[in-house]
Amino acid sequence: MKYGFVNVAAAVPTVKVADVEYNVQQIESLIAQAEDRGVEVMVFPELCITGYSCQDLFKEQLLLDHAEDGVVKLLDFTRKLNVIVIVGLPVVVNGLLYNCAAVLQGGQLLGIVPKVYLPNYGEFYEKRWFASAQDLNPTEIYFAGSPVHVSAEPQVFVTADGVKFGVEICEDVWAPTPPSNNLSLAGADVIFNLSASDELIGKHAYLKSLLAQQSARMISGYVYASCGFGESTQDVVYGGNAIIFENGRLLEEGDRFSLQPQIKMCQIDVQALHVERRTNTTFINAQRNAHAREIACKATCQRPFELFRNIDPYPFIPKSENMQASCEEILNIQVMGLVKRLHHINGKKAVIGISGGLDSTLALLVTVKAFDKLGLDRQGIVGITMPGFGTTDRTYNNALKLMQTLGVTIREISIAAAVTQHFRDINHDASVHDITYENSQARERTQILMDVANKENAIVVGTGDLSELALGWATYNGDHMSMYGVNAGVPKTLIRYLVTSISRESSMPSDILLDIIDTPISPELIPADEQGNIKQKTEDLVGPYELHDFFIYYFLRYGFSPKKIFLLAKRAFCTATSEKPALYDEETVKKWLTTFCRRFFNQQFKRSCLPDGPKVGSVSLSPRGDWRMPSDASSALWLKECESL
After folding, report:
1. Residue 416 to residues 262, 388, 431, 441: CA-CA distances in angstroms?
2. pLDDT for 426-438, tens place per residue?
3. 3-state secondary structure of 19
4. Which of 572, 579, 576, 561 is nearest to 312 (CA)?
5. Kind of pairing between the strands at 242-246 and 249-253
6. Are 74 and 34 in contact (CB under 8 A)?
């Protein structure tokens, strides 16, 4: 394990029922492939050494003896390998036969795990052949040339790198209280399931839902391998599932009904799971009485680390099949937040500064939907466009057209004269386009909004977003301030998707919204160029928002170090694929990651006094909720690591 990742695999060999020699050969072939690819732990299907569908042949001593011989061969085969292998086979203990998983590594039998819940309904008759782990008295047996302790006691295996894993078998996960509950609460980071689940209409979807829920509930990785081609089709068909989940998210899935052996490999982020468990107080409370016997795995030869897991460049963008529904859900959270605030104060009016940019557009659309939901007249929304020294015709016209189309009250108040007078008052040279020049405009706009709100008995709806809050890209007591910030929980990359989603509604001005989406992001505080185009582009100054949103997600959601964030970002943005070219080079990513770390720490004082606003996703910067940080914390550790990248 390095950077918190462990390489795991689910393998589905072809089998011949009761042909142990053939089955072991197939298993060895997949083990060799896994070893070459750097797999650390891999799991095979239930009873894969004999085949699951042997039925009454499980009563034959010859089959049982050869199954044990098969483990001997696998131990010899793995003697010089690093990979930990989990295989299924029948094992006799004190005269009773158990459906077991054997854990092997480097020629050693690390442990045997018996199945707890035996299905004996419908097409399943396991109690005809096997005893349950619940019937097992702890005992020491000699198996495959090795002494091994066998009991019903939960067992957690610990790799040399400290990754902990547990094993359960097929029906165990379908039970009301799966063994993986206790195993995970006792410290297992990953659960491996050896399975033999037949295919029925609708069952596969239910299975995936079950595994997703179990991995999410236990905040664990879950690696599932189920038997496939070669099992008897006398009465049922086995599809050969290889499925890997991490905390409810599907990472890998094999091809069902394949005639060929297959191995599905991926990297599970154990570090991320640990962070989730540490922050989830419900999980912490639940683990108090959990226990398991720990078994140490042997040390392995360390390979150079390679990250091959796919990393999504846009972690804040919903990945559901129905993107529109996800966007509507986010919008409903924003709308209901504002609805509650207006209802609480018996408010009938709202004031918003409309710039013609993305943030103020989303805030206006949310406010319109909130007014519609409350049955309030849209004329109660006072949209104020406040052109200044850097306002371009494009944003100015879009602001006016948007307000007009939506039927809100339109006001235009130029800030030029007031800011010019202010410059004279404070003796500032207006030709010097410094921070005073910029912030004076932002504060003048906020003063106008606040004073109009007082005059109209309204509230000021804030437009600033999560990305700006993280970077501190807001004027303190300027656009930083409002009476309710509807965008506070929405990062910049997501805002574009939300506005795009709204543009598809028949009642919305799609042409205006699409042009706003295409407009470069800018505070427009510096005069335009000679052609009247936006000269001050935010992303040229603080960096691309798609990078910063990526940094925000992994810094806040998981507390990852700059080194790990850089590793993930290189995979997400600097790696070319057949589907897309590389978006950035490594030096660019490093530059803006350093900028992010510096600005995030330096700008905390702005976040410490944020207005109220709704949380919409897993990341929030509210000082009253998810993020509580001293404004004078040092960034030295983070910046030093950035320098070492």
Report:
1. 69, 5, 14, 8
2. 999 999 999 999 9
3. coil
4. 572
5. antiparallel
6. no
